[in-house]
Amino acid sequence: MRGRFLAYWQQHGSLAQFGYPLTDQFYDNPDSIFKPQGLLVQHFERAVFELHPDNQPPNDVLLTLLGSQVYRQKYAQGAANQQASTDNPDYFAATGKVLGGRFRSYWESHGGLPVQGYPLSDEFSEVSATDGKPYTVQYFERAVFELHPENAGTQYEVLLTPLGVQRYRSLLMRTRLYSLDASSTGEAWAGGQRGMVLHHRNGRWVITNNVRTTETVTDIAIPAPDDVWITSGSIYQWQANEWLESKAGFSIYRFDFVTRDVAWAGSLYASGVLLQYDGDKWYSRDYQMRDLPLDVDGLDRDEVWAVSRYSWYHYKTSTGAERQFVRDGEFRSISMITGAEGWIAAGGKNKLYHYDGSTWQPAASPVDQPLNSIQMLDSSTGWAVGANGTILRYDGVSWQQQASPTTKNLNAVKMVSANEGWAVGDAGTILHYQNGVWSVYNF
Fold it and tell me: Which CATH superfamily is domain 175-440 in?
């Protein structure tokens, strides 16, 4: 937290009122979620802060009307069996509702109208989505109060429903994640539709500061612990806690960093151009790929492999380029172990292809599901993920299907070791592999 949001959080109840931050600050726009012209917002467990710079403090920070939104969604005709409080009641003509008892005491001592808003309902019983138990609740424009008699006599007798968590999960469920990278230090980054970028740090995934794009983030790379890159056509580098555009001169779909000063990329320019990064700038290797590149795997400064939908490409500065067209390929991802061995994941007739140093040949797959991403750690360990939650593991002899905790399409996999890794997919799905088991990361 920083700036006006930090000040507002501290001045209006801090942790007890709003909970922990779930995101960094980013721009929210109702038409395109991550768009600089929208409002600067930050999600907390129980609220969403909005910055309105045209307003004078303290009204320059307002809370999203989460209570109003949820109430309309759940109770279009109004909640049933409401009971107006008779304990020190206060009637609000603006909404026709009564506030009293412990809820009134809490409302008056925790910001009142500016922070909580008008009451939208009287008191009624509702089953909590958090623990499945019934509680007496009352809806307000910006919050939902819950009465917890088991905490009577303490500051926790009235608690707020975690509407910020619900809003955050809803935001992620509307987002398809396509790209992923992770490092052995525990850092991981994921990206997807509408410019969304998530950062895993201190054991939690959070939305990062705004990327000034509304395009899909198609690739992410972490060439060094302090160096992170993304591409959504334009390339951005993470510097000083924000994304700064790096001029490449080409629209880039996928890239691969061998080191922080050596990288290869496939450009969408003119149906596919191979690019190289020298630590200072991106430049074309003057090699026309003939079709759109879907994945790139660089081995060193002088050699790179790439795939398009129906072709594989091999470029080496000493020998030039070679290409092969495969009619039933539908290639999607490539992972080279060495210059003489590698694998391709595909979605067509054959799901896997193996390179033995001379030719690419179809390999047996235990499933008929399309595969979207593959990563080889070495000749005896590899992973592939795909449609309907498919997860495969290679043991040096054959590919075996693994138990998956999701049926969502998985679009990228990144292992940091044989014992730990991540996968991302549709509906904001993030999976974590640890101690031999894949599990869903719950936001």
Answer: YVTN repeat-like/Quinoprotein amine dehydrogenase (2.130.10.10)
